[in-house]
Amino acid sequence: MPLSARYMLLSALGFALMALCVKLVSRYGIPVFEIVAARALVSLLISYVDIRRKGLSLWGHNKLLLFARGLVGTLALMAVYYSVTTLPLAESTVLQYLHPVFTALLALVLLKEQVHLSTALCVALSLAGLVLMVQPEVVFGASSLSPLPWPSVMAGLLGAFGSAVAYVIVRKLSQSEDSSVIIFYFPLVALPLSLLLLGDDFVMPNGQALMLLILVGVFTQIGQVGLTKAMQTETAGKATAYSYAQVVFAVLLGWVFFDDVPALTTLAGGGLIIVGALINVFGRR
């Protein structure tokens, strides 16, 4: 297995465990912005130590693009955390993997790139899978099928869009910046912004909630390091396929910890989204 694939699997596991901890700690009444702030504080400390250990400058070279990556990533993280706390793990995770659709649209609009057949198939399958997951009664015409709540779905879609933008920026920054510096700017922006939005809604966590908040930061850091390392390798495109193991991890964790069994419509819609994304990864090859 290529080294990039191993990094991507590590990233998928880290993000799946992060989502689990976010959902668990939200049951203690901890607000989303407080979870983001706690995650940012832990990651900021870990990133700072890592950069000092490497003897690098904290601020990097392309400060404007680094800040943009931090801001986009922060907004996407807030949306993803809201989706995770209000949807089952499997559904919220699958929604995040709509980012290839947004990446393709961004490339078409901003970069004037040609839309390949594989990309068109990815968009079509992903949209079909989204409708099947979100509005199953439209497909099957059965009122007994429960649609997903739209605010949570929209948050998941916003998170996927932000992830698409962040992936493009990270790929550009990887040409000139060390992975630790790229990761450092994420919590550097997220911490003050989340505290500002939290305002007076702070909830003092008990011992279990505090441990979960720390684990949110630790597992996110593992996911970020794995993703950034994978993106910096020559075989990053192929390794992207391994990131979809996060969906499998999410299904298993949701079943074990919350007794969540995904509906058949979720499995079918999620399958279409993942197949479409894999076609986009390998189709041009």
SSE blueprint:
Blueprint: H1 3-26, H2 32-54, H3 63-86, H4 89-96, H5 99-110, H6 117-134, H7 136-140, H8 150-173, H9 179-198, H10 207-231, H11 236-239, H12 245-258, H13 264-282
How would you sum up this structure, described in words?
- By secondary structure, the protein is mostly helical.
- It has one domain (3-282).
- It is built from 13 helices and no strands.
- The protein has helices at residues 3-26, 32-54, 63-86, 89-96, 99-110, 117-134, 136-140, 150-173, 179-198, 207-231, 236-239, 245-258, 264-282.
- It is globular, with a radius of gyration of 18 Å.
- It starts with a helix and ends with a helix.
- The model has no long low-confidence stretch (mean pLDDT 82).
Query: Which regions are unreliable across 5 or more consecutive residues at pLDDT < 50?
Result: none
- Biggest β-sheet strands, sense, barrel: none
Shape: globular
DSSP summary: helix tally: 13
Helix content: over 70%
Order of helices and strands: HHHHHHHHHHHHH
The number of E-state strands comes to 0
State the separation between the terminal residues, measured CA to CA. 19 Å
How many separate structural domains?
Answer: 1
Percent strand: under 5%
| Nearest-integer average pLDDT | 82
Counting helices, strands and paired strands, the structural category is mainly alpha
Task: Round the Cα radius of gyration to an integer and report it.
Answer: 18 Å
